[in-house]
Amino acid sequence: MVEEEKKVAQAEQAPSTFRFIIPGLSLFISVAFLYIGLTKYGFWDHTSHSPTPGFLPVIVSVGLIFCCLWMFIAEGRSGKKDSANFSKDELWVILGGFGVFALTFLIGLMPTLLAYLIYWLKGFESCSWKSTLKVSLIVMAMVVGVFYLWLEVPFPEGLILETLME
Amino acid sequence: MDNFDMLFYGLQVVLTPQNILVTMVGAILGLIVGAMPGIGSLAGVALLLPLTYKFNPVTAIIMLGALYYSNMYGGAYSAILLNIPGDSPAIMTALDGYPMATKRGRPGQALFAANLASFVGGTVGIIILTFVGPWLAEVGLKFGPTEMTALLLVALTSIGWLLGDNPIKGIIITLLGILLASIGMDTLTGSPRFEFGSMYLMGGIPFIPFVIGMVGFAEIIKLSVSRYATVKSEIQKMTIRGSIPTKEELLRILPPALRSGFLGTIVGVLPGSGATMGSFLSYAFQKAFKSKYPYGTGTIEGIAASEGGNNGAAAGSFAPLLALGIPGSGTGAVLLGGLIMWGLNPGPLLFTKAPEFAWGLIASLYIANIFTLIVGLSVIPFLMRILKVPLIYMIPTITTLCIVGSYSSGGSMYNVFIMLISGVLGYLMQKFGYSPAPLLLAFVLEPLLENNLRKSLIISNGDPSIFFGSTISSVLMVIFFALLILPAAKAWYKKHKA
């Protein structure tokens, strides 16, 4: 209970402007789609009287722009200052995932996953070696057994292994 | 009665030691593959197709049918226990299944409900297939581009039931889902669209990694904050008996399972729809009915609707496949490939020229359905142990499964990248009160909607009155406009009455 309270206490409230992230991102995407849709793909082919590839995206982009602007106005008028809480631990999970992605190109997916499991459990969570190795081996056995051996999914080998094999 | 006699004939074909054995093996393998995130029914059936080469055509297609069918059961396991849908039809199962397992502490009941609803929905679908399958397939043919557009517009309004308390947030997310789905190849012109110069985006955003990230990885990011919390010890006894829902819960499971089985079967018959759409529409339709708890918070009706719908659609998809030779989905295309490979020609003549095959397959679905239920229920006590595992071990484990599952779905690290990005997006959405369900539904429906909409307008030379040209599309368009206007009309009426 005390540990959990510590974890919750460490979460920080983001600035109130963060609540505009999603509508802001949506507005950016919709403006981009509207512009590209109209200029590159067109809206309507008057020769064949038929819609072009930009037809539905342009309509949807216009709708999305309106909704995002409405959201900005509504949220701005509401005067709300509260926002969501973020924690560094959440960032570590994200970075861990992207770290696996990056390292795979170097040493391959299977070694990267094993390294990730061991590092996360021993280095980050400070678990005992026994738990670390037990969990890591079980997970890797599942991945190798089901995906690699049975379903024959060809996992990437990474630059180093590919170079060695040459 | 003719069909009944033929069904008995089919059962005679199936009930041989070899065919029973392959049905059982197919059911177990399909269950396992279905539970693996990233390996959907299409990949699962395609991967396991070589196992059937050594058998005669009847036995081989019986095994494939069992594989496909039990895949629908398997997807629910990882959805309920890990919030990672094993395949796309299980996305809606995760919405209520995971909270019921974790927040309400009833994982056994959630898994039992999923299995039971799959069985009920599947049985409804197979019975409909048995007696009116060929007729349904003919009806399905009447759904051309115009009728499909109208139906999909109705389906999109059903997203309104998923919007939650803030409709504007829901609409923003829905429209965003439609835009994201339009990235990639334009199937009508065959040219890339909105790929922003990237060769990866030319193929669009792959759906399975997108879902795994948005639902599964996003949940793991969120859980990292509470990973030191004590695991609930009130999780009931890990036995099958301990997992049986109460009488009241069983009575709450059956109506949505039956309704969704029926609705899912009809959806499964329609060209290009499939189990994912069956599951989505059934869940959205179920929201019009009352439930004990709010939908999305762990109510058993939500699980029953989703699972009943996807198994019903799986059965329904066999109708156009067998009766007309038209696959209803990508998986159906693999099954069709298998049929042709064994020298069989699906179509109206299949039932007369090769009745032992057609009715053998239909009969095997009954057996596979029963057997998958038995296997599915018996593994519940073992699967529930997953929830006892401390979160500090689950976080890297599930991250690993998300990565491996995403990679396996397409064989490319691009899929893993999409999973990670959509995970971050899903996490931010949840933080600020945006539900991922409308985005995922819109993502699934957009390709079908756009193709059929544009085809309709091409056929009519741009004249929108084509959507009122046939009885089916006219009725559906009226329903669409009614569903659009009704909420606003209700609100206006209430305001003026007050």
Average pLDDT over all residues of chain B: 82
Estimated helix fraction of chain B: over 70%
Number of domains of chain B: 1
Gyration radius of chain B, to the nearest Å? 22 Å
What would the average pLDDT of chain A be, to the nearest integer? 85
Estimated helix fraction of chain A: over 70%
Main β sheet profile of chain B:
2 strands, antiparallel
The total of helices of chain B stands at 22
**Contiguous runs where pLDDT drops below 50 for at least 5 residues of chain B:** none
Q: How far is the N terminus from the C terminus of chain B? A: 58 Å
Task: State the separation between the terminal residues of chain A, measured CA to CA.
Answer: 55 Å
What is the overall number of helices of chain A? 7
Q: How many strand segments of chain B?
A: 2
Low-pLDDT segments, ≥5 res of chain A = 1-9
List the helices and strands and how they pair.
The complex is a heterodimer of chains A (166) and B (498).
Chain A: H1 2-10, E1 12-13, H2 21-41, E2 44-45, E3 50-51, H3 55-78, E4 85-86, H4 88-107, H5 109-124, H6 129-150, H7 158-165
Antiparallel strand pairs in A: 1-4, 2-3
Chain B: H1 2-14, H2 17-35, H3 41-48, H4 57-82, H5 91-102, H6 107-141, H7 145-157, H8 167-181, E1 184-186, E2 191-193, H9 207-223, H10 240-243, H11 247-269, H12 275-286, H13 300-316, H14 318-324, H15 330-341, H16 350-353, H17 355-378, H18 380-384, H19 391-410, H20 413-431, H21 436-459, H22 471-497
Antiparallel strand pairs in B: 1-2
